Amino acid sequence: MADRRGIADVARLLSQAATNLISLAPQSSQELRETNTTSDRAQAELKRAFSPYQKVHNAPSPVVSNTTARGTSSQAKHFTVTRAAKGRKKKTKELTAKLFCLAYTAQDEVPSTEEKRELLTAGLGEKKGFLPENSSAGELHEMVQATFPKLYEAGGYEFLHAEPSSRRLKAIAPGPNGYTMEYLKQFVGQGRIHVRPIQSNLDIDDVVIPAKMSVSDDFCQQCYKFFPMNELRQHLDVCVPFDAQPGEIERVPYIRHDFNRIMFEAVAKIIVKGYKDCQYFPVKISKSFLVACLFGEESVTDVMLMSSFQNYVSRSEADAIGKCLNQSIEPNDDELLEFHYTFDCKRRVTNDNIREVVTEFAHKEILMKPQYAADCWKEIVSSLKIYFTDVSSFLLLYDSIIPTNSKVISLFTAAPVTAAESETLGHLKRFVRGLDEAKLATFLRYTTASDVLVTDIITISFTNQEGLQRRPVAHTCSFTLEMPSTYSSFCELRQEFMAILNSDVWEIDIV
């Protein structure tokens, strides 16, 4: 019944609309007679079409004559416009301002082009701010600090504008309602609103990288690892070619039947204890695995996972991965088929999905297989978050403690007095510069008792020992290395020091 009543209402509305439309048009007497005829026909047709439904409604269908419609057409127009005006919400105008944040409290001139570049890389400089026209002074304050977060440490700030045809900056006096977006826009027009700190200068050496910044990655053709393209050139300066890499340098916990939860938790407690007390961290454990333990699996990117996987497999397998990523190998190549068999591939590999398949291998080996160990570790290693609160700071830890030849040499602190001591120091640096990764770690264990960097200084002192008494002596408690200054050549120093590093047993008699 409700449906029939609704259709009846529709019929009446259509009839009234047709009548009103006809009445609104200017008409001559001839046109009026023709319109009346047309209107009557339209009315009759509507009544015929909807006659079964009109009977169910108590109120009769409204029939408006042409004369009445014409007489009330202005009222109809007024009613329609008024109703539309009431239903339409007035939009709030949004204002856009050019904000330019300065770094120094005493700056009173518009920055030069070079200064603008420095400010831009530090997260300052020019940015756009958006606020409604009727926004308050408090909303403007929140917007300015959100746009330039470093202003939280400024001890207040002030607004300035550039004087016409001049580089001089002049403070903007507050308006009737204080500093509002509307007032500042009226004051500077299309110009910039300069924001200057009041009490403390802002740090421009701290380069700000937006959280949502996306830099494309590409792999290094020498080591087959992925790097953001803005870091790739810097990496090439320290890149170790793939052929020179030992392979299998990252590990994940291995699930064994005789290793239960208590044992896995004990290992995690040792890791936490070692870092808290000695700043030692086992860098051989896969970065991706530890990131998943600390920050969740969703924090592990494909680039990070692939890098860990290449460090996890052997050198020949890493070579195959590099060819897959470079798409320089055919899917039916015997070497690649053997690689897929090793990792129990269940998919048909093509040129289109080869990268995806290798990523799946990495996910299985680095994250899925040691998941039980990760569950045992998570709660314990989470206490390390006080030292690194996000993934970036954790990866920075890895980069800072992994030894390289140049890093170790930079730790040396010495004060040679004689020419022989200066020559010995030069021989020692040359010796360390020529060590491979494994021997470099052994050198660090001999001098600091750690295979990673746990100190900022290694003190080099000199002795005058000769004959059988001549040998380098390390004091690991104080990170001191005693070097005889009586070597006649670099070859003598290298021979004696390599004999120590190659020895299976070291005598530690200084505590």
Automatic annotation (TrEMBL):
<dbReference type="InterPro" id="IPR035983">
    <property type="entry name" value="Hect_E3_ubiquitin_ligase"/>
</dbReference>
<protein>
    <recommendedName>
        <fullName>HECT domain-containing protein</fullName>
    </recommendedName>
</protein>
<feature type="domain" description="HECT">
    <location>
        <begin position="344"/>
        <end position="499"/>
    </location>
</feature>
<dbReference type="GO" id="GO:0004842">
    <property type="term" value="F:ubiquitin-protein transferase activity"/>
</dbReference>
<keyword id="KW-0833">Ubl conjugation pathway</keyword>
<dbReference type="Pfam" id="PF00632">
    <property type="entry name" value="HECT"/>
</dbReference>
<dbReference type="InterPro" id="IPR000569">
    <property type="entry name" value="HECT_dom"/>
</dbReference>
